[in-house]
């Protein structure tokens, strides 16, 4: 939609330039006015500039492709630079013509006719409308080519006013007035061209918009999880601001949290710059306060390996690490041992080659087991034994939600119990382990016992 609007306003401007330059050239030939002739040449230059703008707009609206990953919007900057050069050439012509008239007093030899004045007056109105329309679309679409075209029409309007005043001055007997006015207006045109050229060169040289880097830096620093900013790279291309942000995050941060942090950065930047195309890279880094447990768990997690019963000991200044490694039950021992060895070597590489690392391999079934409630007689017998064993451990009470299921691997017992809220997890776990060992001694078919401990005083956990 924006591309169509840009092309439409550029096409209308091109047609307007053709009409203006043609009519002014005819007026110059019939009146002999050098002022009108210079204005006709100015309009011809503008006509060429509008052709360049129209072609640049059509080219820049093409989508990104395999050779132009960032699109074609920079062709507008090239077109704006060409138009800026044409603007300076036009200004030089006006200055030359004005100086020539002042030095040689040629400005009075003009045949002022009403229709020549009407052509110049009409061109002023057309230039004013086209400059305003082009400026509006240029601001809306951030088009440098249209902005340059608007400046051309604006300068054409002011130079036409100068010519009109010059014709009036010639008619009133003051031939030098139009040349002086032309010099003043040319200075304003040159200044505007200089500013446009500077902005265009900044775009071509990938200069970040003024103040944008500080704004983005503040937005990124406010995002939770960002430890530091490694780099911020911004570059405009047409209406799009391409932003590349690289940040540091804790390597112990879960993947989901890293993704969420990147999403928050992206949202913060696009909220502030709606036309931004944002790329966020998060580099995990080690923190000074990482514990041995965090480092070992992270190494295992990166290899998609599950470990538990992680233990770290200091033995006479030497660190000893041990853990249980879960692998698929059907995995051959040779493959499982290679997996464990690779993990142990990675831990030594992280913690030091003199660290003792020991792993215990145990099966972890990955298939879905088909289970059913155990027969009532055996369930009642197991429940009775469970309550009897729990009575030997005063910290445990209120055995409830007892369920016994049978599947192809054996019996699975589930139960809930209550314990003092201030009691340590370690002590409760020891009691539960002893109950499990006692049950397995009495019932050889029991494969696993899953106990859920709840603090005393809280409502029973609903199933």
Nutshell version of this structure?
With about 475 residues, the protein is α/β, with parallel strands linked by helices. The protein has twelve helices and ten strands.
User: Which regions are unreliable across 5 or more consecutive residues at pLDDT < 50?
Assistant: none
Q: From N to C, what is the helix and strand string?
A: HHHHHHHEEHEHEEHEEHEEHE
The neighbouring-strand order within the major sheet is 7-8-9-10
- Radius of gyration, Cα only, in angstroms? 41 Å
Question: How many strands, what sense, and barrel or not for the largest sheet?
Answer: 4 strands, mixed
- Tell the overall outline: rod-shaped
Keyword list:
463 residues, three-stranded mixed sheet, 12 helices, single chain, alpha/beta
Description:
The protein is of the alpha/beta class and 463 residues long. Helices cover 57% and strands 20% of the residues. The protein contains twelve helices and ten strands. It has a four-stranded mixed beta sheet with strand order 7-8-9-10, with helices on one face. A three-stranded mixed beta sheet has the order 1-2-3, with helices on one face. Strands 4-5-6 form a three-stranded mixed beta sheet, with helices on one face. Helix 3 runs parallel beside helix 5 (144-172), helix 4 runs antiparallel to helix 5 and helix 9 (292-302) packs across helix 10 (333-351). The longest helix has 31 residues, at 74-104. The model has no long low-confidence stretch (mean pLDDT 78).
